[in-house]
Design a protein that fits this description.
Number of domains: 1
Low-confidence stretches: none
Largest sheet: 3 strands, antiparallel
Oligomer: single chain
CATH superfamily: Glycoprotein, Type 4 Pilin
Structural class: alpha+beta
Length: 124
């Protein structure tokens, strides 16, 4: 053989190194995506909480359901209270819940496991 090419061993080493780098990058990206989903959902919950409080200040009551926040009414209707056409879903595609807890308004997402009442719920 002429010494101008790569040996099979050199090629295997390069493939193994590329595989290891790909595994590290994939792991980091997944971790970042999970963090971004939690942060996005937390921000959405805070926005919903602000909209619910605005609704309460304007109408003297809490909405019966979150769809009231995006409703467009007649000339005396002070809404909509969200700048969106429909109520947002959390980062996992789930619905938000809201209610009073110890005289404080709480907006809750079920979080990554998509079940309410578990340790990963996001509450604002």
């Amino acid at each position: 053989m002429s010494g101008k090419g790569f040996t099979l061993m050199e090629m295997l080493i390069v493939v193994v190194i590329i595989g290891m780098l790909a595994a590290v990058v994939t792991t980091n990206v997944r971790g970042q995506m999970a963090r971004v989903r939690v942060e996005t959902t937390t921000a959405q919950a805070a926005e919903l909480k602000t909209a619910i409080k605005s609704f309460e200040l304007a109408l003297g009551r809490l909405p019966k359901h979150l769809d009231e926040l995006v409703a467009v009414g007649g000339p005396s209707w002070p809404g909509p209270f969200l700048d969106e056409e429909k109520v947002p879903k959390d980062a996992w595609g789930g619905e938000f819940r809201f209610g009073m807890e110890k005289k404080r308004l709480r907006v809750t997402s079920a979080g990554p496991d998509e079940r309410f009442g578990t340790g990963d719920d996001i509450v604002k």
